[in-house]
Design a protein that fits this description.
35% of the residues lie in helices and 20% in strands. The chain is α/β, with parallel strands linked by helices. The protein has an 8-stranded parallel beta sheet with strand order 5-6-7-8-9-10-11-12. Strands 4-13-16-17 form a 4-stranded antiparallel beta sheet. It is globular, with a radius of gyration of 20 Å.
């Protein structure tokens, strides 16, 4: 039996808690916080085909070091996960890589929406977390920017009882702006090219489709006030729309490009401090349902290229919890809200079975983030230099106790 004594709980009481364990072990929880295992519904672990950026051997370590025991991996790999054969191959590769490092990580996979492969959806419907739609171009070649295809995928999702997760940016707006600012080299133009209206227009269309087809729609990486206003109104009407934001929108903003350069380039882009403040308000108000890391690593030498060549995406799975715990210590959110965003809400939205996963978090010691600390294969973080607390000390999952300090 595993016994943790005098540990702080999310309701801010101190308790003694136990878990099944093959031996008797007691942990003093005096300087620890107990949380349920985090669920990260938005990661890009880059397998297959992009293993130079990330793989499951490294990413599983990063996840557990971040207190994450369940991940949902995205389909924009090489080749993209758009057929039953590719999906089964991906399962096999992942299971093999996890076996190599002997780490317990729960995972589910999204299936990519490809207008030429719609017939594959029925074959995989029992095996996937949902369908992923890219309305705006990002890493990979999964782009669905015509309304007829969007109607088709919504009709299929309705017929087969599937959720749709969406990267909601309007591709036409982005392309027009990219042509307009083609000669610009300052990274701040990434936020101008992918302007807020590109996200707002796409989210408006998602809400219309979700309402028309009555299909649960999970809007990824929401970053602007306009999106939040639309979703809040839609939720009030009973539309089945859920929204995620990401740590980079909560803790970074577009005034930091001068320091971040390529480290601050992701899709959607960094937004204004005003948008960031609105995100925090919406988070505490309950408009935002989840926080996903959008862990999307690239090699640091790729991120050091000029704006036009620098790929979009940043790592984040092992820094989400320390950022949020530090925000809790600064009275920006409650522990109850943190648990809702990182566990309760994703468990409900994606209908996940209950488990007894547990994260024991150090809430006393602070440390400055450095690239060298990062377990991700890319070995860097956009949050470098921040002084944070809330690093997991132990993770209990699948009747195993992982000492995060030894990973």
């Amino acid at each position: 039996m595993l016994t943790i004594t005098n540990i702080l709980m999310p309701d801010e009481t101190r308790q003694t808690i136990t878990r099944d364990y093959p031996e008797d072990l007691t942990i003093d929880g005096a300087d620890l916080l107990a949380l349920p295992g985090l669920i990260d519904p938005h990661v890009h672990f880059r397998v297959p085909g992009l293993e130079d950026k990330e793989d499951w051997q490294h990413a599983s370590v990063a996840a557990l070091k971040g207190g994450v025991t369940t991940v949902f991996d995205m389909p924009n790999t090489k080749p993209a996960t758009t057929t039953q054969e590719r999906l089964q191959n991906k399962f096999a590769i992942i299971d093999g890589q996890l076996a190599e490092v002997d780490l317990p990580l729960r995972y589910k996979l999204f299936f990519g929406a490809d207008k030429n492969q719609f017939h594959e959806i029925v074959k995989v419907k029992a095996d996937i977390a949902g369908i992923k739609v890219f309305m705006g171009a990002s890493t990979g070649d999964l782009l669905m920017d015509d309304e007829s295809s969007l109607h088709a995928v919504y009709a299929l999702a309705k017929a087969h009882g599937l959720l749709i997760a969406l990267h909601a940016e309007d591709e036409l707006i982005i392309r027009n702006n990219a042509a307009k600012y083609a000669d610009q080299t300052d990274f701040k133009y990434h936020s101008i090219i992918r302007e807020p209206q590109a996200a707002v227009k796409a989210v408006q269309l998602v809400i219309e489709l979700a309402e028309l087809y009555q299909v649960p729609s999970y809007i990824l990486h929401v970053s602007t006030q306009g999106e939040l206003d639309l979703v809040k109104a839609a939720k009030a009407r009973g539309v089945m729309v859920y929204i995620e934001t990401c740590p980079h929108y909560l803790f970074l903003d577009d005034s930091q490009y001068a320091n971040l350069n390529g480290r601050g380039k992701m899709n959607p882009p960094l937004r204004s401090k005003i948008d960031q403040d609105v995100l925090w308000h919406a988070l505490n108000e309950g408009v935002i349902d989840t926080i996903g890391s959008d862990h999307a690593p690239h090699q640091l030498n790729e991120k050091e290229q000029p704006l036009c060549k620098c790929p979009s995406g940043v790592p984040g799975i092992e820094t989400t919890l320390p950022l949020l715990i530090t925000a809790w210590r600064e009275n920006k959110l409650s522990l109850a809200k943190l648990v809702a965003l990182t566990h309760d809400n994703p468990q409900q939205i994606f209908n996940l079975p209950v488990n007894d996963d547990l994260v024991l978090v150090d809430i006393v010691n602070y440390r400055e983030l450095s690239d060298a600390q990062m377990a991700s294969k890319c070995h860097w973080t956009p949050f470098v230099g921040m002084n944070l607390t809330g690093f997991p000390r132990y993770v209990y999952t699948q009747q195993r106790l992982i000492d995060c300090r030894k990973l």
